[in-house]
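Supplementary Methods, section 5.1.

A reviewer requested that the exact input to the structure prediction be made available. We therefore reproduce it here, unchanged from the version used in the analyses.
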Amino acid sequence: MEPRWGLLWLLLAAASCLLEGKRSSVPRGIRVTYSSATEDCPGLPFFSAEGYVDDQLIIRYESHTEKMHPRVDWLNTLEKEEPKFYQRYLSILRNDQEDFQENVHMLQKLYNQSGGYHIVQMIITCEVREDGTRSGCWQYGYDGRHFLKYDMGTSTWYAADKEALRVKWEWENETDLMQRFTGFLESTCPDWLEKNDHYGSNSSLRKEPPLVKMSSRTEPEDGMETHVCEPYGFYPREIDAFWTRDGEVWEVDTHHATSVAPNADGTYHYWMSLHIDPKERGRYRCHVEHDGLQDPLDLELKVPQSRSNLWYIIGGVVAGVIVLCAIVGIGIFLKFKKGVDEQRNDPCTSSLMTNC
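The structure derived from this sequence is encoded token-by-token as follows.
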């Protein structure tokens, strides 16, 4: 049940801490996630592997195609100029697919489970700071909860329960596994950051201006209004978005996403909300600044539209039918990722481990 990391070669770029929509200087790093399940499910195949750069999905491998699907253009250039290199790691991913499918069944036996939906997940990260220091963490999850993790900086293992302890005792004495951890942190991570500088140097020229969706509703409890501003489809990732009142930055009664999040097409999205007295609606604006815009946007708040309760009922029923399978599969995966986010201050968990 030894993990193998065929996707490490393609994770090559500047990764950041959670920026919360603000510009900042950040360390560089990479993140890989593997998922393997007992059943196929819409949006979550038997096996998938993803590579992230700065919280942006750059490539995805899926078991039903057994191919790597680049999400950034420069990876196509890499495939053409270094085909043997590309095919080598495609072969590794196909082997990983078999290994992780076996892992699911082995963990089922470990927990005395005879059937049902179960999923194994792996997240591995590396961070290189401006002073050259490096840190990394490997984490293994089962059914949406932590199972094992390893802090590469302190060479420390963490087991979640007695079943995980049994695996820990086996793996911590495996020389080959420990060499992979060391090689990933000391060689693979910085080597591929350098390769990214070569192939991805033109990616910084891309600029996609944000589109902005404005929505609003009246709260039945107190008659106050909640307004949501959602910039989306923008690139690069850095964006300044905030509420203003009478032309001044306004933070009172506001909420916002914890970070700028990636879309499947390589662009990003963000949201923020505002709770106000409807009599003062005209004083507020959604202010957005981005390198893809010639001028900043200042968008007025919309008047809430009333909706029939019937449409809420219909929408709820339809949504329930559509996402039934996804609740079982994707919900477990997101639960594990949330656990990773909540442990960002843990000695083992680097700031890159966000929405793994």
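DSSP finds six helices and 18 strands in the chain. These observations are discussed further in the main text.
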